[in-house]
Amino acid sequence: MIFQWAFFLPIILPLCIIFGALRGIVQMVERVMEQIISDVMPSEQTTTFTER
Questions:
Q1: How far apart are the C-alpha atoms of 38 and 42, rounded to whole Å?
Q2: Cβ neighbours of 12 (radius 10 Å)
Q3: What DSSP state is assigned to residue 31?
Q4: CA dist., res. 37 & res. 33, Å (int)
Q5: Helix, strand or coil for residue 1?
Q6: Is 2 exposed, middle or buried (0-12, 13-18, 19+ CB in 10 A)?
Q7: Rg (Cα) of the chain, in Å, rounded?
C-alpha cells in the first residue's frame, strides 16, 4: 500500500491539480458569461420597448 502511494502520488497529484484548475477556469468563464448575458439582455429589451 505504501509502495502504491509512493509510486502513484507523483502521477495523480499533478493531474488532480491541473484538472482542478481547468475546471475552476471553466466554471468562472461560465459565471462571467451568465453575468454578461444577464446584464446585457435587460438593457436591450428596455431599449426595444421604449423605441416602440
A1: 7
A2: 11
A3: H
A4: 6
A5: coil
A6: exposed
A7: 22
User: How far is it, in rounded angstroms, from Cα 44 to Cα 37?
Assistant: 10
H/E run at residue 28: helix 2-51
Q: What is the mean pLDDT of residues 38-44?
A: 76
| pLDDT tens for each residue of 3-16 | 888 999 999 999 99
- Scan for cell 482542478, then name that residue: 20
Q: Using CA atoms, how far apart are residues 21 and 24, in angstroms rounded to an integer? A: 5
Output the nine-digit C-alpha cell for 26: 471553466
Q: Hey, what's the cell of 15?
A: 493531474
- Residue 27, C-alpha cell as written in the block: 466554471
Judge if pTM exceeds 0.85: no
